[in-house]
Amino acid sequence: MSETDTKRKKKGGAAPAEGLDTEFYAKHQKIYPRQVHGLFARLRVTALVVLLGIYYGLPWVQWEGRQAVLFDLPERKFHVFGLTFWPQDFFLLAVLLVIAALSLFFFTALAGRLWCGYACPQTVWTEAFLRIERWFEGDRAKQMKLDKASWNKEKILRKTGKHTAWALFALFTGLTFVGYFSPIAELFPRFFTLNTGGWETFWILFYGFATWGNAGFMREQVCIYMCPYARFQSAMFDKDTLIISYDAERGEPRGARKKGTDYKEKGLGDCIECTLCVQVCPTGIDIRDGLQYQCIGCSACVDVCDEVMDKMGYPRGLVRYTTENAMAGAPAKILRPRVLLYGALLLILLAGFVYGVGARNPVGIDVIRDRNMLYRDMPDGTVENVYTLKLTNRSDETRHFEISVSGLEGARLMGTDSGYVEVPPGRVIEFPASVRADPAQARGSNDLTFRAQVVDMPELSNERTNRFVGPLR
Question: Which pLDDT tens digit goes with each residue over 174-231?
Fold first, then answer.
């Protein structure tokens, strides 16, 4: 057995059979993360409470007599507190997705996998499920002992209690998810009285089952095998990215010793080979083997190693947040070109998004000229151009629009009822219209402005310019 296989065996993993270079179909070894305390553990708990609090609490917040955050798909309304978005505003969603992706790049280049370690839904819900598991089955040692024990009354009760709590928590998660799309105050009583619709029931059960499976069983396998971010994160790392690192120069060679022993005389480093950094890792890796794509940056190993160093009377920081350059003795460069570029682009997009939301015009008008003919002569001696008008009402009330044209002397709008058009809330109305003008005033190509104005609210208006083509002479 090779040295690598021996290390894997010591960590609790399965070593490959003799004669095989790689174990392709090894049975999954369950990981029992040890509970840890410290600064980063408190930060993770804070993130857990805040993020789950927002997720479960936000649908219950009321705003002006309705649910504050509600994505009403049947009505095609997306309420976010005092703002209402319509399908016509989807370009803002595209900008928001770009901002989210750029934020991931920015924070990854700056400090590694902060998202994975503290804010990823898989991490957050797995941490919640781990805490439920500890309530029913005890700490790491007790869980391992319980799993190895034969089935008896105690084991059945503990396992049943854990899975019941998991299932209820997952069901609550699924109900809350659907509550963002269907009024949650009505959804809960309808679900428990079996009055939900087919799609509502499907998504409640599907999302709940996915939460139960991912956070309860798959856990680190989602991060290692399913999440694409684990594979391409290295493309965003450089030698000045803050990562969790083991100081091999200080810690090696490893070796067990008693507190107060002069380990320097024995030629040992600061690492006492307690393996606690492996026991607390939610993905089961050994940070002492160097940076690995399985590391989610949760910093549990930093907390537990600092705790061990305190007990041994050694300086903290054997495992710490640092950079590759800092480990090599070079000065760290946190503010470097890629970080500044990501940050500048992020600020620009955020400013553009805020401006786009604030500057949304509730009145939308588009004008498309019929290009099948330049113009046509009318019996009354005028020339006519044909257009297709699209009016958008981005408000919650039916609006009456007055349509007018300007920019060409004597031009008259035809095809509407005295220039007035009714548009229901959130709807787009498309209709043909034509404009007639005196050929003497409309020679060649002319700019023509179409204006849509709300009848009872003149301050709400919008306009578009198009071309009016007349005879050349």
Answer: 999 999 999 999 999 999 999 999 999 999 999 999 999 999 999 999 998 888 887 7
182 exposure class (CB count in 10 Å sphere: 0-12, 13-18, 19+):
buried
**Residue 242 backbone zone (phi > 0: left; psi -120 to 50: alpha; other: beta):** beta
Neighbours of 132 (CB within 10 A): 18
Tokens, residue 174: 């699924």
Nearest residue to 131 (alpha-carbon basis) of 28, 278, 12, 33: 33
Euclidean distance between CA atoms 51 and 49, whole angstroms: 6
- Gap between the Cα atoms of 166 and 162, Å rounded: 6
Q: What is the radius of gyration, based on Cα positions, of the chain?
A: 32
Evaluate if residue 27 carries a pLDDT over 80. Answer: no
Examine the pLDDT at 162 and tell me if it is beyond 60: yes
- Measure the CA angle with vertex 423, ends 420 and 427; round to 5°: 150
The two three-digit tokens of residue 24, written as one number:
């392709």
CB proximity list for 327: less than 8 A, separation 6 or greater: 245, 247, 249
Please state the pTM of the whole predicted model.
0.81
**Residue 414: pLDDT band with limits 50, 70, 90:** confident
Q: pLDDT tens-digit profile of 91-137?
A: 888 999 999 999 988 998 888 888 999 999 999 999 999 999 999 99
* Closest C-alpha to 280, from 296, 268, 293, 256: 296
How many whole angstroms separate alpha carbon 309 and alpha carbon 270?
8
| Secondary structure of residue 432 in the 3-state scheme | strand
Q: How far apart, in Å, do the first and last CA atoms of the chain sit? A: 96
Strand intervals (E) in 371-471:
376-377, 383-393, 399-406, 412-414, 420-423, 428-437, 445-454, 457-469
Question: What's the chain's length in residues?
Answer: 473
Cα(388)–Cα(164) distance, rounded to whole angstroms?
A: 60
**Per-residue tokens: 427:** 């709807």
Q: Are 319 and 301 in contact (CB under 8 A)?
A: yes
Pairwise CA distance, residues 76 & 178, whole Å: 16
* pLDDT value of residue 10: 46
Distance CA 137, CA 145 (A): 10
β-pairing, 457-469 with 412-414?
Answer: unpaired
